[in-house]
Amino acid sequence: MRRLRIIFRVVLFLILGSFFHYVLPQHDVVQITQVETKRTDFGGFNKWFYAQQDSGSAVMENRDIFYIYADRKKTFLFGLIARDATGVMVYRNEDTGWIWPPYFKFDSSNLQAEAASLARREATSEGGNWSVVTNYGWRIPFLSIFPNAVDVKPATGPDHQVTPWFNIFFFIALIIGFFFVRAMWMQLRERSVDPMLDSAGHRLDEVQAGVAERQGRMRRWMNTWRSKDNQR
Predict the structure, then answer these.
(1) Of 52, 141, 142, 178, whose CB count within 10 A is highest?
(2) What one-character DSSP code corresponds to residue 27?
């Protein structure tokens, strides 16, 4: 039973960790190299990793999607520590609208224009052509899944540092909420659940004792008939 509890907690932790890693915002320091609009067909699985059609557009089996191509600064520990290396990254640029995740993004066209403007910046200009792309999601090449860019801003350079304040406050609130709910459950268990279980246990003991007593009476009565038969 203890092993099952440990396995359940590990699986639950992995599921929740993957979920939060997907939906929470990430900040990548990149050099935008190109922007593109491409007609995209959706498969039976990867369509779940795309947002809805742009606000005001009709629902279709395939549609035009904005893409942003960039050279990304590699990092350690989910973007907290920068590495002295770069790699390529492709972002999609879709409206999230009012659906999940709740980024309430309606300006994918404006964001594409900003990304195109940053891609045309000269590397010799102030801050170079480095940018910060705020995004959520994963890049899975063999499934054609791309993170969704929700914001693009100029960066001061390749060593630009971004503090993920939202994620920090989110996890602080999550931890506080967890201990608050845990305290409420402990109080509820102490005041209501445990007394109810104790009462049910006492009743079960009384029922078992009553059954045992009736069985004992039945045995004694049967023994009286056996003794009479032996006398004969």
Answers:
(1) 52
(2) E
What pLDDT does residue 81 have? Answer: 63
Distance CA 132, CA 114 (A): 12
> At a CB cut-off of 8 Å and minimum separation 6, what does 50 contact?
40, 42, 65, 92, 94
Domain hosting 30: range is 25-162
The whole-angstrom separation of Cα 14 and Cα 8 is 10
Same domain, 168 and 225: yes
CA angle 144, 153, 163 (to 5 degrees): 90
Same domain, residue pair 97 and 168: no
Task: Based on the fold, state whether residues 190 and 134 are members of the same structural domain.
Answer: no
The segment with the largest mean pLDDT, out of 136-140, 187-191, 214-218, is 136-140
Partnered with residue 31 across adjacent β-strands are 71, 130
- The pTM of the full predicted model, rounded to 2 decimals, is 0.73
What kind and span of H or E run contains 215?
Answer: helix 194-231
36, part of any domain: yes
What digits encode the pLDDT tens for the residues 150-170? 999 998 888 888 888 999 999
Strand partners, 191: none
List all residues 6 or more positions away from 112 whose beta carbon is below 8 Å from its beta carbon: 35, 37, 66, 68, 93
Q: What is the pLDDT of residue 119?
A: 87
Residue 167 sits in the same domain as residue 78: no
Residues 145 and 194 in one domain: no
Last residue of a domain, one of 118, 144, 162: 162
